[in-house]
Amino acid sequence: MKKNKLNNPLTLEQKIKRRNFLSFGIFGVLGAAAYGSWKWLYHSPEETAGITAGTKAPLRRALNKTEIFFRRLTFNENHMVKTYPVEMAAKQVRHNSDIGSEDEIDSEQWQLKVIRKDKSQLNISLNEIKKLQKTDLVFDFKCVEGWDQIQHWGGLRFRDFMEHFGLEEEAKPSYVGLMTPDKEYYVGIDMPSAVHSQTLLAYEMNGNPLPEQHGKPLRLIIPVKYGIKNLKRVGTITFSDQRPPDYWAEQGYDYYSGL
Amino acid sequence: MKIIREKHSLVMRWTHWINFPLLGIMIWSGLLIYWANDEYQISISGHTFFHFFSQRFYDVLKIPHRLSEGMAFHFLFMWFFTLNGIFYTFYTLISGEWRSLWPQKSSFREAWLVLLHDLHISKCAPPQGKYNAAQRIAYSAIILMGAGSVLTGLAIYKPVQLSWLTWVMGGYHLARIWHFLLTLGYVLFFIIHIVQVILAGWNNFGSVVSGFEIASKPVKTISHEEE
Fold this sequence. Notes:
Chain A: The chain crosses the membrane at residues 21-38. Chain A is an alpha+beta fold.
């Protein structure tokens, strides 16, 4: 064999055949491997249901890593959401969902419950919140579905709320959890986004008290997040270093959902 | 006499083929996102000529409630799409392959002659190097389109934190329209590309896998032609 090889160099035809065999062979093998990897990913097991759920385990890992990458790279508390003149705000404010706020509610009876670090509870009435400095915000509300609308909201800045009610210790953990009174809808917000100076506990829409559909009597307006994080009808606020439960993150959406 | 003529580098071939499924996944997952609120349509004075997309698409592909799935795939594969594009671009610049790719002064005029030839209107095509004038324009444009998709994508993804980029891309709405139009552009490119590949024959197709093509007689090397 060795002798044969030395004596007869490959003919042109043989060279072409050999190179084609090698390149198409490798092409076929790698193509099949790529197809196999795709099949594996597409049918990979769902993540273990916990704070997040509803997507495949490798995709959730990617979502979490991507989140951290973009948080570290781009989040800056001084980056403000673009605001608009109040005349540009929509008169018919779009409404998508009533999860957690279907039933009628009495604003007089309602109280905001804040669970402090020492487990003690603050009960705050709407009047107490309304007495504080009101902030108006006209911005482009963005839904994860892809629609957006310029809307006008008014309320208490979340950072003012934290300061007024002496929640300095509570501002230290990494996350805020908000939940509707019936516990049907809940979101987890990272603290830097919560205390962003445009984040509101809103009680007014277009200068009037919030209608039922838009989260009467108090809702979260957090312009640095998609609409899914803008919880309607806040019931309870908690603080934690672990990610609090999040309704849409349990349905396969990105936990952070930041803009 | 037949000879083996080296045509495509290994990097060019593999970034090309890797890009093919990546772009497929990006378009597919992008549609799952788009379908959550399919607002684009072509309307002229009240009459809708085309709506992206028809009900048939939804029925065939079982679209509802797949927004989160689309986002999860889109935000994973964007990394590979971006890295593959950056790697290819840097390789092309460093290796000097850009010389046979980037349009020359004469390319825009010659591209018409290529088109006329391809449509069998004119019999002779202008002389060409590795790529003809139309290919130079199309293949360079597709690289710019890829960069455009990444940049408009980032502008939509982080319109607050990367607001400067969103502004450069023409604002949130325009960036989304660009992002969508670029996708339509890929589909159009793909259709023309496939037709051209079929017309060019097996030898041409095979060279994008194997790197070489078989010439029937000795020809000057490409670097020679360029001089």
